[in-house]
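Anyone have tokens for Uridine kinase? Sequence:
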Amino acid sequence: MTESDWEGLVVSSHTLNLKWIQESKTMPPKLDTTGLQIKKNTVLVSHGRPPWYDEAGNRISDAFVVGIAGGSGSGKTHVARQIVRSLGSIPSVIILSQDSFYKKHTPEELAIAHANLFDFDHPNSIDMDLFSACLKDLKECKQSNIPVYSFTTHQREEEGKYLYGAAIIITEGIMALQDSKLRDLYDLKLFVQCDSDLMLARRLKRDVAERGRSVDGILEQYLRFVKPAYDNYVLPSQRHADIIVPGSNNQVAIELICTHIQRKLHERANHFRPKMAIPHLYQSPSGKKFPESTLEELQLTVMPKTRQLEGIFTILRSKTSSRQDFIFFVDRLSTILVEHALQFLPYADKSVITPTEASFAGTTMSAKHVCGVSILRSGGALERGFRRVFNNVPMGSLLVQSHGEHGEPLMLHVMLPVCVRQRHLAEEAFVFLLDAQIGTGAAAFMAIRVLLDHGVKQEHIIFVTFLVARGGGISILRRAFPRIKIVTGGVDDAMQEGWLDSYQGQDGRQVWAMLPGLGQIGDRYYL
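Reply: yep, here.
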């Protein structure tokens, strides 16, 4: 596998920590540009993405989409980055450039483009259908593969950029408000208005420095194509804008826009982890109490209770077990569990010839794609056992952690194999999802939802775990995703509610522990 095969949630070289930006007195040099536009799709990651679904597993909130239009050099990208900087504690953000969606060019068109005679400012130069399709997927919380366009070669590159997981999408381009299919996807529409002389000066500086163009070529293209397109297509599109933003000295407008976005995100927030932790204490959407589920209703594949398995669990549950023994028996148990889970893969008949020249009718695994995805960090403890069973199978990972105040899961990191990132491959892929235990089920719920967003079928997800808490979130998980397979080494009955110490001067947050449980498996395995 190449390095590009393992690109995850953060796919751009312009990945920033927003907390660091907020604490800095000045912006980093690459961002402190008034008019120079960095024509790359950028993912900015701050505090993680909260749940975008309900306890039934249904998507209840789309990504919030902002469309920013304006003339070439008006400062659209700068406005987008100022919005990101001013939002504060936000989840991940994608800045999606219209320039990525220029159409592929024929050899004749390329010759015209290199002579500065091709009209890149006409709406027909942009693949609006692909643009709107990719934006629709991202808005609906699905993954998308965005094309990459090179202004040096005037051609769309063969390999695209994988994007997924943004709660806010900022789309910018001169024609961002010109097409009705795009406008229908926006939650907020902005138009950046700027003086024509300033836009031309910015364009000259940008094209000379970043695209290697000559001043004469830039001016000829501006007079022939850019200015007429602005007058005929770009400027008239401002009537569709909700807000007109000045191209400079626009801090007041930025603050008003950010206040609106933050309010909308707050309205879309969904908190239901307490309902998952001890579901029989809470009401279902129908108004009835969630009943405690029996093992039969949960449809778990539990390993048979052999003397060997009981001995392994005795060592793993004991707080006095040495770290060396703990690691050894964790690897042994994970190997046994993954081997037991192989029964859920498809197999086809196959005849072979034995060394004695006899015919033997056997079977062979017929799954087109198989991969493993671990929920970090305790899920990483199962990876060695998984690799002992599967040779040369790609591994991915998801980082899901609890919010420090309310305990809701946050998606912080996604790194998935190619067979999941490509939707046409994901539909045929079988994914082994690895985590040490299912207690409240919040991390498991989010991980399953991520795989479904990529097109993986429910019945192709095989969840492998050491322990499941029958009184925890497994019952809600099962109701939401009845067709996934769950393979576990054992079942504990109880979940115990507790409180951590105070968090940043506030009251401690609520936590739940499985009893008798295995403790913090990640800490015991890695530390």
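Residues 1-39, 502-506 have pLDDT under 50 and may be disordered.
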